[in-house]
């Protein structure tokens, strides 16, 4: 399915909660794909009056449309991204004040540790020698490939409200609550042009036209999130033209990443690849239990196996593939709970456990060229279809060999060495 990029401007703050109970709910810093899809489904039903076959095609489970989340940036940090604990953020040239001490990607260090069993020397900030801490959330990648933080562009608010008496329509006694909201930071140093939210829709051209028509009828406005009757969540949405993606060079990625590992792998025989879920994923095993292991849903991948640093390289889990084998090298992942509300039933939805956004899995193929080409075909299919359940809400979108690891990777050894 072609991908269409989506850009949104907030006309009022958006209220989003992790938990259903408003008293103990923490805000989140992006609009989940579930909310984007729900907003489109509401205007569809409002305009057309019924859930016809076209509705099922767009919004049904296993339908032909996938709605990604709306993020303050156009890229999401992988779980292997770190920055200085004291002055985090991308190093920017020239602007000493706004820049951080730089971003590093520890994936090469983790991969080498896993393959050799030798614990790495700790990596510290290159500028001030302090500890590193993990980065999460989204960032902005510009057309020239340089990256920017979003720390000062958005702010979270706690909006205080009183409850409304259902019968009289006036303020109700002793009901007071707050709503976590997000909005562009008015004190942001940059202009307002940078306060957009970025997302995507994967679907066929005729469905995009249908969604465009719906948006036009609504004056370009979607209503997203909680407390919409209180005026929150007015979002002006634009769907861009179909994205032209050039096919990435995975051989080049494999060769360059191999250089970070210091001659540990033979690029002729070894093909290292990463599988990432920038929007999270919902994976289940054969008994429908939640899992963080993609191999339950992608049968040709090896199980994660033991991921403890104390594991010896001999214990790496592997599976035969074509005439060679695939090894499960490393995984940086965790579970997160999503809660939801089923509007059709008017009941809370059962909690689900997702693989967190930015989860990174590393595998190594070892074998001949024929198997290697077969593997690349499988990887292209994964990128096209995604993995897991609730893919219509953006879960399970797959990125193979994220260029982030080449741009920010720290060499796992200071000088090249050849292992026996
Ligand atoms: Zn530092």
Description:
This protein is α+β, with helices and mostly antiparallel strands and 420 residues long. The protein has 3 domains: 3-74 and 152-242, Alpha-Beta Plaits (2-Layer Sandwich), CATH 3.30.70; 75-140, no CATH class; 250-408, Alpha-Beta Plaits (2-Layer Sandwich). The chain has helices at residues 33-48, 53-59, 107-116, 205-217, 250-260, 369-385, 404-408; strands spanning 3-10, 14-15, 65-67, 75-76, 81-84, 103-105, 132-134, 138-141, 147-148, 154-164, 171-184, 197-203, 221-223, 234-242, 270-277, 283-284, 290-291, 318-321, 324-332, 335-342, 347-355, 359-366, 399-400. The strands form 7 sheets. A 5-stranded antiparallel sheet has the order 3-12-1-14-13. A 5-stranded antiparallel sheet has the order 18-19-22-15-23. Strands 2-11-10 form a 3-stranded antiparallel sheet, with no helix packed on it. A hairpin with a 5-residue loop joins strand 16 (283-284) and strand 17 (290-291). The longest helix is centred in the C-terminal third of the chain and has 17 residues, at 369-385. Residues 20-26 and 416-420 have low confidence and may be disordered. It binds zinc ion.
């Amino acid at each position: 399915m072609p991908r269409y990029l989506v850009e949104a401007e907030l006309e009022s703050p958006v209220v989003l909660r992790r938990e259903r109970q408003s008293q103990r709910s923490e805000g989140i810093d992006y609009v989940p794909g579930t909310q984007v899809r729900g907003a489109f489904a509401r205007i569809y039903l409002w305009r057309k009056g019924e859930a016809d076959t076209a509705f099922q095609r767009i919004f049904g489970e296993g339908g032909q449309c996938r709605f990604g989340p709306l993020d303050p940036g156009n890229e999401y940090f992988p779980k292997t991204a770190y920055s200085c604990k004291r002055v985090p953020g991308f190093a920017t040239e020239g602007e000493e004040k706004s820049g951080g001490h730089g971003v590093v990607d520890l994936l090469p260090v983790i991969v080498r540790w896993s393959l050799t069993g030798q614990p790495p020397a700790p990596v510290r900030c290159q500028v001030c020698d302090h500890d590193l801490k993990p980065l999460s959330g989204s960032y902005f990648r510009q057309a020239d490939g340089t990256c920017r933080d979003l720390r000062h562009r958005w702010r979270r608010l706690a909006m205080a409200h009183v409850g409304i008496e259902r019968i009289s329509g006036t303020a109700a006694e002793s009901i007071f609550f707050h709503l976590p909201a997000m909005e562009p930071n008015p004190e942001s140093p940059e202009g307002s042009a940078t306060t957009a939210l970025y997302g995507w829709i994967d679907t066929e051209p005729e469905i995009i036209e249908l969604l465009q028509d719906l948006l036009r009828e609504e004056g370009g406005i979607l209503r997203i999130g909680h407390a919409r009757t209180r005026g929150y969540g007015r979002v002006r949405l634009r769907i861009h033209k179909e994205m032209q993606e050039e096919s990435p060079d995975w051989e080049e990625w494999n060769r360059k990443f191999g250089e970070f590992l210091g001659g540990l792998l033979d690029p002729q025989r070894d093909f290292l690849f990463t599988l990432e879920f920038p929007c999270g994923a919902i994976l289940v095993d054969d008994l429908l239990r939640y899992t963080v292991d993609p191999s339950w849903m992608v049968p040709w991948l090896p199980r994660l196996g033991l991921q403890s640093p104390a594991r010896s390289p001999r214990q790496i889990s592997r599976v035969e593939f074509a005439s060679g084998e695939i090894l499960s090298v490393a995984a940086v992942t965790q579970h997160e709970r999503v809660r939801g509300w089923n509007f059709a039933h008017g009941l809370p939805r059962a909690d689900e456990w997702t693989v967190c956004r930015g989860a990174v899995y590393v595998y190594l193929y070892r074998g001949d060229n024929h198997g290697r080409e077969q593997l690349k075909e499988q990887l292209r299919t994964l990128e096209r279809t995604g993995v897991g359940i609730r893919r219509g809400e953006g879960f399970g979108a797959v990125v193979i060999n994220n260029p982030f690891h080449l741009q920010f990777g720290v060499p796992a050894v200071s000088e090249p060495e050849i292992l026996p």
